[in-house]
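Service request form, structural biology core

Requester: graduate student, group of Dr. S.
Request type: structure prediction, single chain
Budget code: on file
Notes: please return the result as structure tokens.

Sequence provided:
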Amino acid sequence: MLAEKQLLEEIKIKGITLEQLIEVIPKDKVKVDGFFASETSLDDFKHAVVNVCSSTERSMIMSYSRRTLGQVLSFLLILFS
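Core staff response, request fulfilled:
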């Protein structure tokens, strides 16, 4: 419990990478598939969005590069089922 609290405090301060987030999600409770934009295509992404939006049992966490959109920030996509 203390380790979890310390981890949460560290995340609040420093943030978390996709790899770290995948590691801290309890695998016995959810199935996690993590994808990087550089490892997949736009069609794969669209397919994942359609699948998640077509199900009440799936969720998606997504972060993306706002810099590409002329804004500021980055891309992360995680599917839960």
